[in-house]
Every structure is written in structure tokens, then in C-alpha cells.
Amino acid sequence: MTARDATLAVVQATPISHWQLAVGKLLGSWVSCLALVAVASPYLVWGIVAAPYGIGTSVLGVIVLCVIFLCYCGIGLGYSALTARPAGSAVLTQATVFFLVLGLPALFGLLYSTTAEDHEVVGAEYTYVDDSFDTVPDCRDVATVRSYEHTERIWWLLAPNPFLILPDVVAAHDNPSVRVWTSDERPPDPSVARPIAETLSTARTGPYLTEPTCADTVSTYRVSASNRSFYDEQVAFESGKIGDSWYLGLAVNVILGALGLTVAARRLRVPARTLPRGVRIA
């Protein structure tokens, strides 16, 4: 935050308030980040045109990307105000971003087994006659106890991840994943954003506490086109939260960026009271 050539003190002596100065520094660093978006604009335009979702959804994804950059600039500005060396603020900012990208998913993986809980479910049990697989097996519904991981309790650890926020923005308007199609023509496949968003949606909805029964059309022995299969209902349940989580993760990033901006503004107040050792303001 302090200029090595004593330029900060000159700016602080002007009628500019500490909030105006902090916001100006934030916008300056954000513009430099947007240069990356400008360089990648040909690829962004190609992606918007080729994407299976509408132009408005694609533009929204680009806007969210720019807002995430703004949040990271705010985080870096806050660390810059707290540290005496620019290298230290850069390292802390990178560590924070890496924690959001890799640390929180790693923590989610560590806590995954702790969410396991036993539930009694009724499922189909097939018995083959004379150990022959050429005949239709006998089926009966049996109640069993199975362990399910309740990831809906810790899914919020994945929400701030930018690599999950951006796919969730557009995936709700993407082509759905289809396992079986009735016509001869294969339906269009979804983009890469859809399975990534489905992962976040599955974690948020939690386990599907139902097993296929004899009445479900889930085997090759009994197929009914008039009824939805068990697995189709399971997929619909697990993908029910697609597009409903990105704004929560974005809000977390906005809060972190706002905290960094607030810290920077408070450190720019004049007269300065306590400064770290080795800091020269004039």
C-alpha cells in the first residue's frame, strides 16, 4: 500500500478520501486483470456463438468471471495494506485463491467419510433359476441397511470455487444428459459445463435414498416406455440444483473482496497511527 518513492503520501495530502483512494487502486488493478479477458475475447466470442445456450447466458458467464477477478483484486488490495512488502501480499493473495480452488475441495474430500449415515431402504433382489442367465430371474423386494454420504451437509465448501461457479451459471440452459433416446437420431450432447455443474448439484442435494424395486423398469427383462426408469428419476433428483448455487459462491467471493477493500481503506486513513516496522510513507 505504501509507495516506495513516497508517492502515496502526496496523494493522501490531496482532498481525496481514503475510500476514494482505495476504490481507485482497486479499479486500477481490476482493469489490468480485464486485459486478460480482452486478450481472450476471440475465444470468448467463439464460445458464445458455439455454445448450446443462449447469448444472454454466455454473456452472464463472462460478467461473473469479471466480477470474480474484481473480488480477487479486492483480496490482494487488503493483503497489500497489511503487509510491508509487495511480495508478501502477492504470496498471500495467491495462497487465498489456491485455498478456494484446491484447499476447500480437499477439505470436502477429508470430511466426506464423516457424513456417512445408515438408512434402511427397500430394493429388488433377483434370484436366477438353476444358475442360468438365459431365463427371467425371480424378483422380490428386500429391506436392507445401506450407508449413504450426506454431502448436503458440507456442499457449501465447494460453492466458492470459481471452477464450479462458472459452469453452474450456464449449465441450467445447457443440453441435458440423456442416457437412452427413443428416436434413431442421437440427441445433442451437453457441453463440458454440464457434468461439472452436476457434480456440484449432486453434492448439494445429497444421496438419493431410494433403491430400484421390482416394480421399477430398470432391468432388460421388463422395459416400459410409458414409465420413467428409476435411474432417470435419480438423475433428475441429483441435477435438480443445477444453476442454483453459483450466486451463493459468488457472494462468498464478493464478501472476501469487500473485506479486503475495507481493510485497505482503513489503512489509508490519515493521519496514520500505527505502521509496521520498516514502512516509510514520506
Write up what this structure looks like:
This protein has 282 residues and is mostly helical. The chain has helices spanning 7-12, 18-39, 41-50, 55-82, 86-112, 162-171, 193-205, 230-238, 246-267, and strands spanning 116-127, 138-149. It has a two-stranded antiparallel sheet. Helix 2 crosses helix 9 and helix 6 packs across helix 7. Residues 218-227 have low confidence and may be disordered.
What is the share of helical residues?
A: 40-55%
Rounded average pLDDT: 83
Cross-sheet strand order for the largest sheet: 1-2
Radius of gyration, whole Å: 27 Å
DSSP helical segment count:
9
Instruction: Tell me which oligomeric state these chains represent.
Output: single chain
Task: Provide a concise account of the structure shown.
By secondary structure, the chain is mainly alpha-helical.
Break the fold down into its secondary structure elements and pairings:
Elements: H1 7-12, H2 18-39, H3 41-50, H4 55-82, H5 86-112, E1 116-127, E2 138-149, H6 162-171, H7 193-205, H8 230-238, H9 246-267
Antiparallel strand pairs: 1-2
Task: Give the key terms.
282 residues; two-stranded antiparallel sheet; 9% strand; single chain; 9 helices; mainly alpha; 2 strands
